[in-house]
């Protein structure tokens, strides 16, 4: 089932991306010679709206064959568009991924609710023989207050790390209990694993859409920084780069499927936002690389064969990057 949901999520995400390029090109009168679902040998084909629609054997990808992108098609189709027209075709795929992510996130906020931290701490694990265990804390407890003062954030649990006697107010199976904890000089670890408690507040779809846009824009720079840093880590051979490839996504999809449909939708949102950011990187063969060359062509004379070679080298680089990331996924999954 992991592979099934992986193919569905990746297939929809890439389809939406390529559909953006297709629609932007067709809206400007540019012919799209072929739109393929998958790569490799063609299983089915049908001509419609001036485009050959294909179903191919390898389901890992989609592509739109837009007239004018190849060096031998100079002066036609995409190549004949003005600067802004070309830019629209190139950014349309990224825009579609972002719009899909916003739409799914708005649905999640309206159906599941907007996740908001309550300030309380959920105890996930209590280490045997620890101070926390002696105080009577258990996994599943919700820490409400320390020394009678309600927690404003989960990290407030650290207030017990001052010498003396403390009281912990916890909620356990719907009941509120008071526990006693004594912290002594020289102690270092409380002995708990915890996370902030999250409550879900349901909103309407339009409010959810507004929140989806604002939160993703606020989080965007952090995501971009993590993505670039992770890719540099992969190239440097760092096994903890934080970047996952197809195998890692398959494993994560399996875990998400076990947690339910909402978790699968959350993963789809994350994949689409990541796909949008990745495609904007100024690497030849990606949309970002084409956009960079488009801007450079306004100041430099770039011959068609030179641009084709640059994109070929970029494609080779991307293949090597995928191999490196896949190798790291294997090491991680096999416990290496």
Describe the secondary-structure layout.
Blueprint: H1 2-27, E1 32-48, E2 51-66, H2 83-111, E3 114-126, H3 131-135, E4 142-146, E5 149-150, E6 164-172, E7 175-183, E8 192-201, H4 205-235, H5 246-259, H6 261-279, H7 287-296, H8 304-333
Antiparallel strand pairs: 1-2, 3-4, 3-8, 4-5, 4-6, 6-7
Helix pairs in contact: 1-2, 1-5, 1-6, 2-4, 2-6, 2-7, 4-6, 5-6, 5-8
Please give a structural write-up.
It is a single chain. The protein is α+β, with helices and mostly antiparallel strands. It has helices at 2-27, 83-111, 131-135, 205-235, 246-259, 261-279, 287-296, 304-333; strands at 32-48, 51-66, 114-126, 142-146, 149-150, 164-172, 175-183, 192-201. It has 2 domains: 2-113 and 203-333, no CATH class; 115-201, PDZ domain (Pdz3 Domain). The protein has 8 helices and 8 strands, in the order H-E-E-H-E-H-E-E-E-E-E-H-H-H-H-H. Strands 3, 4, 5, 6, 7 and 8 form a 6-stranded antiparallel β-sheet that branches. A hairpin with a 2-residue loop joins strand 4 and strand 5 (149-150). Helix 1 packs across helix 5 (246-259) and helix 2 runs antiparallel to helix 7 (287-296). The longest helix has 31 residues, at 205-235. The radius of gyration is 26 Å and the shape is elongated.
